What does this fold into?
Amino acid sequence: MQHFVNVFLNGLSLGMIIAAFALALVLIFRSTRIVNFAQGSMAMFTTYLALEVVSAGYSYWLAFAVALAAGFVLGGLIERVVMRPVEGKAELNAVIVTLGLFVAIQALAAILFGSSFKSFPSPVGLTGFQVGSFNLALTPTGLLVYGVVLVVLVGIVVLFQRTNLGLTMRAAAFDNEVSRLLGVRVSRLLTFGWALAGLVGAVAGMLIATGSLVSPGYMEPIIVLGFVAAVIGGLDSPVGAVVGGLLLGVVLSGVSGYLAPELVNLSALALLIVVLLLRPSGLFSSAVARRV
It folds into this structure.
């Protein structure tokens, strides 16, 4: 019984971490209709900046704030300097540029911060709770991740469904030309969308690193799983990103705990294929496929 409970809790914790990154992917896609392969590298870079703050003797929470501010600025700068020249061109151009950014930012981080693994502290405990004779695979750090991801989810949902800014961002992302004719300053909204996605990505990077080890490539496994979760949930759905992340985390934990750890990646692929066969646009996507 304890093994089952801990496998399930491990799955939820892994799922929340995956969901944190998937939310950043959904946000940038919903704001700009671009799949940003550089999101993980951007999150990694801002996490390293936070680690520099912690290493200088400042608190974790100040480092967290620095990472968020850095993510916001980095996202805006990338849109203005790198992505702006390819906007309005073929969609594949922007995707290729983000792939180039993924490699370039990772290389820059290795030059500036080194390639070795470094320990990243946690502001709360890393020891699992104990209930009676049960040692649960649930830590205060895990609860911190749960709380922050839920706050980010609510913030994104409120932004896009309850505010004029969010609705205007969605409209601009769907049709730039019509939005411009209606007087919307599309370029500013795109910059803001990238900046906001950079901020959410920085949150994900911090949550994934907290209580763990970081290196320039520490986000790579989560990047793949984050994309899988976002596609399972529907690339334009924040709720879908969280549900997709939790579903993926529980399935992977179950496979690792009851079958074999070597089958984890294969099971992620199998789950993705099954979901796409049943719901090609994802479980919670608002896009509706029309049969012609």
Notes: The chain has a mean pLDDT of 87. The two ends are 51 Å apart (CA to CA).
